Amino acid sequence: MQQCYRIKITFFICILLWFPVICMADYSAEVILQKTDEVRSPQLDYKVLVNVTSIKPGRDSRTAKYEVLIKGRNKTLIKTLYPKVDRGTSTLMIDYNLWVFLQTISKPLRISLQQRLFGDVSNGDIARANFYGDYNPKILRIENIDEKEYYILELLAKDERVTYHRVILWVQKDNFHPFKAEFYAVSGRILKTCSYEDYRLVLDRLRPTRLVLDDPLVQGKKSIIEYKNMTLTDLPNKYFTKSYLKKLKY
Amino acid sequence: MLSIRVNLVLSIVFCILFIALSADVYAYMLMYNNLPSSIHGFVKNETACRIHSPYEFSKIKNILFVSKEDELYPAIRYKAGWRAYKLRLNKKKGKLVPEIGYKISGHAYYDAVFDITNTYTEKVGRDQEDDIELRDTYLDCSIGNLDLRVGKQQIVWGEAVGLFFADVVNPKDLREFILPDLDQTRIPVWAADIEYYIGDNHIELVWIPILEFNKTGVSGSEFEFYTPSAPGGALIHYESEKEPSNDLKNSECGIRLSRLMAGWDLSVFYFYGYDYFPTPFRTIGIDPSTFQTTFTVKPEYKRLNIFALTFAKEAGDVIFKGEFVYNKGKYFQVNDLTDTDGVIKRDFLDYLIGADYTFFEKIDINVQFMQRIIFNCDDTMVADRIKTSFSIWLKTGFFDNTLEPEFFIVSSLKEKDLMFRPKISYKFEDNWTAVFGIDVFEGEPDGEFGQFDTKDRSYIELRYDF
Q1: Is the ipTM above a cut-off of 0.90?
Q2: Number of folded domains in chain A?
């Protein structure tokens, strides 16, 4: 009887010890990607100031500043604050539909995702903070880098209008922090790499506040996206309409 | 004349109101130790030189544009204290909190070409040499999904690139044809604009109680519109334009419904307005003593009913755009000397279909096909029954889009009548933009663009944004 009781206790303790491992093993690629998105940005309405610095070898760096308002997974509003010559330009993205409002014509124009916003940072880089809605993920393998384990996810675009056809994403296994990513075109050519840096406590979570986008083909050519003043706020639906673009205050 | 007086009075009232509000806001900002939101604008020089004989400067214009916009309530006044707490509480409870904002803007310009050269007459100088003008200046009030904008404003409808098709609400300043930026070409009107948002639907009601009409170059100006000469050595006498009074019954109004549906940007609108070009009613008189024939033209602004449908849709990497504008009851000129007033009332349809595409993620291109069809057109009418034209716009960027060559051509398909506008702009030091460009017109003297065939020009612009 005593023997039986010991076996049961040992079995129970084993289960308890293995429980987190079993749970981890159960994480599907989708769940990992969702949790990674939660690290990158709050899954609520929020606004954030974004600084983009474009660096090219042998040339002065250029800086652009934006106020970005995000509602849910699919609505983004980008207000250009700097440089002064572009101040007042607003970009609205709903799903894969994009509009731009230019002060010189005073009306919203429908544009495509291919049109470039600033230097080597595409509209999608700033407007999209969620991979989950845009890509189908698959776990390729688990890698050890500097004694830390990382999920290596392969993300394939759900829609051809997504900025990058394929993404390879490194996600830290214990906390789902994105570490780095590689972005590929349909042809298989690598377009850029991204490292997620400067993790800080933002809205009660450690989040990357600096993204460094490197051009693998040109040494030293990079864009740095920095996030500041991320704040949760109620953003009415009407802000995310083409008609409201003219009403945005700068 | 009444219109000018009413405009002046309203401008002064708005100026006083906004200066007072600004001072009030500034005081509150100081109280809460916030930095004042800055005033923005630009200083710009536009210099143009005719590249067709006689080679002369046609413009040395210096412009100061100033703009200030902000939120008045609740953002600034109640950032702290009991009222701020109450506002947050009301918001939490789902109560609608009104929001009020404003914008005030204006420009002043001086064109030195009228003092430096003797190209233009004094009359042209008086019309175009200098001006101080209130531009978009309004109050924005919002409660929930209902927005109201009252004041001097641009109300812009349509999807077309570089041209005015469904953009019918604001009259245009055409003293420099359609060459300036579109927002500078539109004349802001005193209006009330009510908008309501329901999901992906949008309803807009517009009321314009104070009438404004297109401004065109006076006789002898660089971009004076072509006026046909009287046949057979007859004299022609133009009377002053007859504007409708600013009575309530003469005001303009419109309604627009828009919807985003499965990626389709759809809008329909109706605008009960005016033809912003005067209708040239004509009478013929013969002096019994000299047998001299005189044509007397009495320009008058007439009502126009405008119905339109516009759309934009992405298909693959291409953005398709379209505008169909049906104008009911426009007066067209006739050649028939036996006609009592020289004009005939007809309906016409303006439509445009365009596509945007970006080649190699580098070159943006827009192509537009346009047609005007006049219904029940007869042989006596000066205008053709169908007029077909197209436009092509190309733009690319180098060095992080700081250097942007651009090219725009619009041309008639049937006859030689075109406008060709290559330009290159360079942005530097974050505040400066330099532009060099050429405007070329080709065609017959009575053509839409050909009338300016001898006005081809090259120009440089230097702009500092602050």
Answers
A1: no
A2: 1
